[in-house]
Amino acid sequence: MxxxxxxxxxxxxxxxxxxxxxxxYLLSYKSLNDCIMDLVYxxxxxxxxxxxxxFSHVKKVPAPFxxxxxxxxxxxxxxxVCRYVSxxxxxxxxxxxxxxxxLRAAKHPNIFIFGVQGIxxxxxxxxxxxxxxxxxxxxxxxxxxxxxQAKAENKFIPDYVLDEFSKTDDFDVFISHKSSDFxxxxxxxxxxxxxxxxxxxxxxxxxxxxNTDFSFEIDKALNKAKHIVVLATTPxxxxxxxxxxxxxxxANEIRSGRKNGHIATVNCGNNLDSLPYLLRQFEIIDFDNxxxxxxxxxxx
Length: 300
Known about the structure:
The chain is of the alpha/beta class. The protein has 3 domains: 3-52; 67-168, no CATH class; 173-296, 3-Layer(aba) Sandwich (Rossmann fold). The chain contains 12 helices and 12 strands. It has helices at residues 32-40, 45-52, 91-107, 143-152, 159-168, 182-194, 202-205, 214-224, 235-238, 241-255, 277-280, 290-296; strands at 6-12, 16-21, 24-29, 67-75, 80-88, 112-125, 130-137, 173-176, 199-200, 227-232, 263-267, 283-286. The strands form 3 sheets. It has a 5-stranded parallel sheet with strand order 9-8-10-11-12, with helices on both faces. It is elongated and about 75 Å long.
């Protein structure tokens, strides 16, 4: 798409702008600012200044935002895939824009399907003045997924992204488990993530943080989490050091009134009498029925 071929047509005060290239319609925008921000992805700012000169109320191209978020959605009645672009100086802002579409799709499952082509984030490079770094792909439904996949693929992620990411996520659920039970805990984690609940699982969540003081980060995650899920594979594992600390401290917060979330123990075939008395006061769910866990935990 050549810059010289770009044409912006004002629809009306309600409908915003249409973008054309060589006379062909491409996209619609709510405002000129939204359109210019999207074009920054394709062209440098100096060239875009030429476009802005055609609009008397725009003096210059706005400063680019740090992040550019892209998500997709299938509109089932017409089998049309729609692409949405958002901009923000924070990862939380991008996450919020994704969540708007995700919540609408969850509310109208027969009309919208969220993330059919995945989601992704571009990062603005101050050296090249372009959105250079692409993090994302198919089957991703949150900023968390995007960052974790990028790390798994050994993609370069600027430190400021990881630093902000560690401050951004308020977890819906904290999974407490013995490290030797990771494979089972990961199944719970995947189920919760698939249901749209942001979830802390130490083996996955801690490496994303820039702080190597893991005990501090675990306390912080416990403090942020709305609910805790305790994996009970054996009485010994559920009473082991860190695991017992996590669920007892969470229960104390609930009993003191400082938290109003839920505790759910996912039981792997143990006799209920062998589980700690305190945990038996809360919900107990069989590992083979994780859908019951989803039904039990409110989605924040």
